[in-house]
Structures are given as C-alpha cells and as structure tokens.
C-alpha cells in the first residue's frame, strides 16, 4: 500500500458489533426493569380494585421513581469507574514525566510480548511515546480505549431512557384499555414485551434466544404474581 493510500485510509470503514452490543445490552436490561417493575406495581393496584385514575398515577410515579433511581445508580457506578480511570491516568502521566526511560522500556516489553521483535518494538515504543506518550500507555498498558471510556452522564441518560420506554408500555395500556380488560391486557403486553426483550438480550450476548426469553419471562411472571396477590389481599380488606 502506498504512503498516500495509508494516509487517506478510512480507519472506521467497517462497523464492529462490540461498541453497539454493550450499549444495546444495557438498554435492553433497563427496558426490562421498567416493564417488570411498573407492570407489577400497576397489577397490584388493579388487583386491589383501584380506579383507573389511581392505577395510571401509580404507573407514572413508578416510571419516574424507577427512571431516576436507575439514572442515579448508573451515574454513581460509572462515575466511580471514571474516577479510577482518571487516577490511573494521572499516575501514568506522573511516571512518564519522572521515569521516562523506564516507561519506554515498559512499553517496549509490552510490544515484544505481543510478538514484535525487540528492535521493532523499541522503535514503535519510541515513536508512539514521542507522538503521544500518555495515549500510548493508556491504550497499551492500562487498556483504556476511547470507545470504552466511562461516560457517566451518557450511561445515566440511556438507562433512564430505556427504563422509561419499558415502563411506558404497561402505562399506555392502562391509559387506553378500559378497566374491565386491564388486568389481562397489562399481563399480555408485558409478557409479549419480555419475550422480545429477553430474546434480544440473548442475541446481543450470542446466547440461545429461547433460554434468554424464558429466563426473563419466569422472573416477570413471578413479580407480577406476587404484586397481584398482595393487591388482591388489600382489595379484599379495603
Ligand atoms: Zn506505563
């Protein structure tokens, strides 16, 4: 390949699944949480013979509370990951500034371990450290790649959005379906959505679709059965 061809080479021509899969998987799990927790919550109210206004209100409260707690949890955990990354990078920058030769040797050893000859490894390490020493160490020593860098706000936002989309399904059912059909409709839409989401989650992980779907389905049914029983109990005593 000529120098000009290399310089104009499109580094991102092919799309790799790795960066899509982790995002898709987190969204599917978030949506799954939204469906199970809000439909179960609403089934409890439906089983207690609450009126439609109360059921919809419970659904909205469940959606907002769940989305906020998902966002908070995701933000805190990804932020602590980001803190760790930044502490490692600061330490690495300090090492490069005070122990340049040692760091050069370290990077050379990493490339030798990956299969380069010592001469070539030393040359590659030398040139990469001249161009961007911290970037080279972050990538090849710490394994921190731009693609997988911790983004707390993005993570919080996408998990809250996924939860809300999931929770929106039983909520819309409660808004549009008359009370007499509500119990059966919420259960049906929830189970259908869980089958699709369970299969999707399994597909992103390369696992069996049927096993993935049935796993999510079983937990969904258990959650809905538990809250319906409690709601029914409260309904009788009301
Ligand atoms: Zn280093």
What would your notes on this structure say?
This protein is mainly alpha-helical. Helices cover 84% and strands 0% of the residues. It is built from eight helices and no strands. α2 (17-47) runs antiparallel to α7 (179-204), α2 (17-47) packs parallel to α8 (209-237) and α3 packs across α4. The structure holds zinc ion. Residues 92, 95, 103, 106, 137, 141 line the site of zinc ion.
Structural class determined from secondary elements:
mainly alpha
Shape: elongated
Q: What is the tally of helical segments?
A: 8
Supply Rg: 26 Å
**How many angstroms separate the termini?**
80 Å
Percent range for β-strand residues: under 5%
Any ligands, ions or cofactors bound here, and which?
Answer: zinc ion
List the defining traits of the structure above:
238 residues, mainly alpha, binds zinc ion
């Amino acid at each position: 390949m000529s120098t000009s061809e290399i310089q104009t080479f499109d580094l991102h021509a092919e799309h790799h699944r790795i960066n899509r899969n982790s995002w898709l998987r987190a969204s599917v799990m978030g949506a799954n949480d939204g469906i199970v927790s809000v439909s179960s919550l609403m089934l409890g109210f439906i089983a207690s013979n609450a009126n439609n206004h109360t059921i919809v209100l419970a659904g909205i409260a469940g959606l907002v509370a769940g989305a906020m707690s998902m966002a908070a949890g995701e933000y805190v955990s990804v932020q602590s990951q980001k803190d760790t990354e930044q502490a490692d990078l600061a330490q690495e920058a300090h090492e490069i500034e005070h122990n340049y030769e040692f760091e050069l040797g370290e990077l050379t050893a990493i490339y030798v371990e990956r299969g380069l000859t010592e001469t070539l490894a030393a040359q590659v390490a030398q040139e990469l450290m001249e161009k961007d020493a911290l970037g080279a160490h972050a990538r090849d020593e710490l394994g921190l790649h731009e693609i997988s860098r911790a983004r707390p706000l993005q993570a919080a936002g996408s998990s809250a959005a996924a939860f809300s989309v999931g929770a929106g399904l039983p909520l819309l059912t409660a808004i549009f379906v008359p009370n007499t059909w509500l119990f059966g409709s919420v259960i049906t839409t929830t189970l259908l959505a869980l089958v699709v989401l369970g299969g999707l989650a399994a597909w992103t992980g390369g696992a069996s679709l049927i096993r993935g779907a049935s796993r999510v389905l079983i937990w969904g049914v258990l959650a809905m059965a538990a809250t319906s029983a409690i709601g029914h109990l409260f309904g009788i005593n009301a």
